[in-house]
Input
Amino acid sequence: MNQYSMVVQWSDEDQLFLVAIPEFVDRVVMPCTHGETRAQAIQNGEEVIEMYLEAWQAEGEPIPEPKTLQIA
Output
């Protein structure tokens, strides 16, 4: 399991759950994937994260660091 963040939000317009990955916002068009159910959207999001990480690594591109939640 990766440590990247995912934001999953319902879209009335699309009638789908849309997924954004905050760490990738400067490098990938957002939302980056979707799903008909929350579970499907999360699964698709995890697949997209892995796909981009593998592609960036293969191309020698820098890989964004996962963000961590800071609770004060």
